[in-house]
Model the fold of this input.
Amino acid sequence: MPFCPKCRGEFQDWVKVCPDCAVELVDKLQPPTPKLKSTILMDPLVTIATFSHSEEAHLNRAKLESEGIDAFVADEYMVNANWLYSIAIGGVKLKVKESDAEAALSILKGISEPIPEEVSASTKSIDEHCPKCNSTYVQYKMFSLRPVFILWLLSNLVFGNYGGFTLPFLKRKWKCHSCGYEWKAEKRKSSKEA
Done:
């Protein structure tokens, strides 16, 4: 019985050409050549940075890819579904191949700190600087977020999703984003008083 050398199909004696492959049939098949296993192991992915928001992870991924390093963002959909999951799963992860991890970390270290937005008067001021590290990356905080969040949570438990509001707790402090130091705002003397 003849065989097709390409698809290895078996045919009747009167068939001379394989109808599927259009190849002339042979009387005896060669043993199949074993497929060589790849000697290169897959390079595993390692997490090099975690972020609270997927936007930050994608900005850093884009920077790495512009430098020629393949980068992947993991757990972004879970965090986008509910922002509280970010704490539970460890945030949005930026992953690279293990062989690229060292180069990727050096690229990410080269990215400068974010420049604070100068949208409102409560953000970075030219006159203000941190008394501890002398950084100008400071922000005026008017409210304490922890008590506001606790009141919001309690009002939602009591009133449900339909009611309740929180009264803000005034904080009135400056915070340095470089070293984390906080200090009370001092009243400035006007030019008339001086």
In short: The radius of gyration is 32 Å.
